[in-house]
Each structure stands twice: as structure tokens, then as C-alpha cells.
């Protein structure tokens, strides 16, 4: 197997769920260790508890990729007599790097809320809590005419040039580029100290923010020049609406009780908390992984018959019930479903061993 750096794995997560998408209060990204660490074994987990770290040590893990951050609040001291301090001590002494992708992964396409929705057959999903519209950039690259098609193909495959139902959208202008290689340069064309003139094309396209890094990498890998000339600037057009939660439709109306049983089966939980009449017919379903009680009014406003979310408190449940919105609370730990998808994403990009943690981090017992 190839050995890669922790940052190579982190980059996979970043391209899927950029850290900039996280909520202000969230502490995503590198938690412990170094992005430059060489890794050959990765473990994916929902939480970074002491039993998870002990498992990682026993399995010689180099990098832990978690959904929930180890450090929600930056510690004022590291007391190794306390649980968090012991965890940090173990991670550092065994050179284990930890990375977390939390609310940004809740928002991301194919992330937590999409996985939870798909698991119970909710389709035609869209965010129902709008957080922001993704930034869009114009990228313009100057390249010799004979290399333009290779560049166009590379940047399009990396995600550039998507407009609605169209891909590979670019515009090009012919012109003449000039440059003079200086001492130390290794020019593809021309000689040191001599002004060179080359027939070039300026190839322009648009790129969504989360694809920008991959597109720039594609420019460098497909361009013949040692120092490719390109411009990147933000443009004032609306990108995709990015937001928390998903709302969508079941294939047909079912009773609330029937949906409860499907939630229990799909999320692998023995019991759930429910508000609403057992025989209430439901079709439009809102889903928020983790703690989503603050969004019950938004779910109702968007036409949801039922909201599926965890950590619902007494009075919020009463308020939702009075509004006519049913609630199914399967707990917070059902976000564990995202771990398999995280594992698959990493394996798609890197030939390294990726394990799912087998440690139980559910704090509740159902009896």
C-alpha cells in the first residue's frame, strides 16, 4: 500500500466538506498532531473517547478521522488526571493525529443529513435551513494553444465549468504571451535571459468554492509551464444554496407508526421518542442529524409532516406538537451512519487501510 500524509486524507474531507462551512461555534479541522505525519492506517469514528483512542493504539492507527470534535472548547490547561487530558496524553505519546469534520459535514452534499435521509427512503431532498450560498470563482488560465485541450479536460474533470445541467463550460481568447526566463529557471519554452513570445489561449471558466483547490491542482498538473499564469477572482453570482437539515418526500404516505419502525430499522436503534398520533399520515419528512430541535419551526414552515432529530427537550416537543408537527427522536448517536461513507470517500482517493472504529460511544442504554 502507498503511504500518504495526514494532509492528503484531510484534503479528501476538505474537498467534500470545507472547514469554512462549519458554524462559528464549532471547532472543526485538526484537533491533535501534525498534518505532515506519514500515515498508512486510518480509523474513522463518530466520537473520540478514551475507548476509541485505546482501540487506535491497539491497532497502530496513524490518523483518526472523526465527526464530533475532540475539543469543542479549547482547554485552558491539560490535566492528565482528567479524561480529556488523559486522551490528549495518549494521542500525543503514540503520535496519533486527529481530524474532525462536524457541522460542515452536516451541511455537505452526501453528508450526515443526506445519509440519514436516504436510509429511510426520503427523496427529492433539499436544505430547509439556509446557511449560505456557496461562493463562485472565475478562473482564467494562459496556456500555449497546443496544450489547451489537455488543460480544459483536466480542469473540467476536477469540477470546473458546471452551469446547471451543463459541464465543460469554458470561453477562450487567442493572444500572445511574453516572458523572459531568469537565472535558475527551467523553462519549457525559450532560453535564459531571452524574451520569448508564444501564441497562447486565455481559457476562462467558473468554479464552485469547494472545487477550487482541486481545479488549481489540475492546472499545475496539466500545464506545461514551470510557473503557470492564471487568475482567480470571486464573482457576484449566486452559487448553490448550502444549509443544514434536509426536507424531502417519502414514496407514499405512511402512518407515523410505520415510519417509526422504519427509522428504528434503518438507524439501528431499539427505541425512539415520538410525539404525534400513531395513525397520523406523513409524507413530507424533515431530517436534522444530531441536535435539531431549534429548527422545528423552519421544518413546519417548509411543509414537513414530521421532523426526525435528536436531543429534543420537553418544552420544544410540546411546542412542536401544538403546531401539528410530529417528532421522531432516535437520539444523537444515529449520526454513526456517516462513518461508512467517510471511510468510502477516503478509500476512493488513497490506497491505505481505513478501519471503522468498533468502540461503542453511545452513552445511553435502552431497557
UniProtKB/TrEMBL annotation:
It comes from the Bacteria. SUPFAM superfamilies: NIF3 (NGG1p interacting factor 3)-like (SSF102705). Keywords: Metal-binding. One of its GO terms (cellular component) is cytoplasm. A divalent metal cation binds at residues 67-68, 106, 332, 335. This is GTP cyclohydrolase 1 type 2 homolog. It holds the Pfam family DUF34_NIF3. GO terms for molecular function: metal ion binding. InterPro entries: DUF34/NIF3, DUF34/NIF3_bac, DUF34/NIF3_sf, N-reg_PII/ATP_PRibTrfase_C. The keyword Disulfide bond does not apply. Belongs to the GTP cyclohydrolase I type 2/NIF3 family.
Amino acid at each position: 500500500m502507498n503511504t500518504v500524509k495526514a494532509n492528503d486524507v484531510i484534503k479528501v474531507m476538505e474537498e467534500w466538506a470545507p472547514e469554512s462551512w462549519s458554524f462559528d461555534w464549532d471547532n472543526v479541522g485538526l484537533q491533535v498532531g501534525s498534518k505532515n505525519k506519514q500515515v498508512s492506517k486510518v480509523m474513522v469514528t463518530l466520537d473520540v473517547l478514551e475507548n476509541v483512542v485505546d482501540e487506535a493504539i491497539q491497532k497502530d492507527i496513524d490518523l483518526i478521522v472523526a465527526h464530533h470534535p475532540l475539543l469543542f472548547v479549547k482547554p485552558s490547561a491539560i490535566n492528565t488526571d482528567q479524561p480529556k487530558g488523559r486522551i490528549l496524553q495518549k494521542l500525543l505519546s503514540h503520535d496519533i493525529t486527529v481530524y474532525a469534520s462536524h457541522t460542515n459535514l452536516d451541511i455537505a452534499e452526501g453528508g450526515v443529513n443526506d445519509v440519514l435521509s436516504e436510509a429511510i427512503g426520503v427523496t427529492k431532498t433539499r436544505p430547509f435551513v439556509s446557511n449560505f450560498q456557496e461562493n463562485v470563482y472565475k478562473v482564467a488560465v494562459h496556456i500555449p494553444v497546443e496544450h489547451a485541450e489537455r488543460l480544459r479536460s483536466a480542469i473540467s474533470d476536477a469540477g470546473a465549468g458546471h452551469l446547471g445541467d451543463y459541464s465543460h463550460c469554458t470561453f477562450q481568447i487567442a493572444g500572445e504571451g511574453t516572458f523572459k526566463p531568469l537565472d535558475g529557471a527551467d523553462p519549457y519554452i525559450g532560453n535564459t535571459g531571452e524574451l520569448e513570445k508564444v501564441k497562447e489561449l486565455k481559457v476562462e471558466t467558473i468554479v464552485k468554492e469547494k472545487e477550487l483547490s482541486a481545479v488549481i491542482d489540475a492546472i499545475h498538473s496539466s500545464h506545461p509551464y514551470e510557473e503557470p499564469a492564471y487568475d482567480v477572482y470571486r464573482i457576484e453570482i449566486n452559487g448553490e444554496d448550502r444549509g443544514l437539515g434536509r426536507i424531502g418526500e417519502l414514496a407514499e404516505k405512511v402512518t407515523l407508526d410505520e415510519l417509526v419502525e422504519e427509522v428504528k430499522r434503518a438507524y439501528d436503534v431499539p427505541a425512539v421518542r415520538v410525539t404525534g398520533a400513531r395513525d397520523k399520515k406523513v409524507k413530507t419528512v424533515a431530517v436534522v442529524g444530531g441536535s435539531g430541535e431549534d429548527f422545528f419551526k423552519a421544518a413546519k414552515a417548509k411543509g414537513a409532516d414530521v421532523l426526525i432529530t435528536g436531543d429534543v427537550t420537553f418544552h420544544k416537543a410540546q411546542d412542536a406538537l401544538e403546531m401539528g408537527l410530529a417528532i421522531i427522536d432516535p437520539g444523537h448517536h444515529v449520526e454513526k451512519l456517516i462513518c461508512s461513507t467517510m471511510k468510502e470517500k477516503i478509500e476512493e482517493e488513497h490506497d491505505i487501510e481505513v478501519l471503522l472504529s468498533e468502540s461503542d460511544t453511545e452513552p445511553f442504554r435502552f431497557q
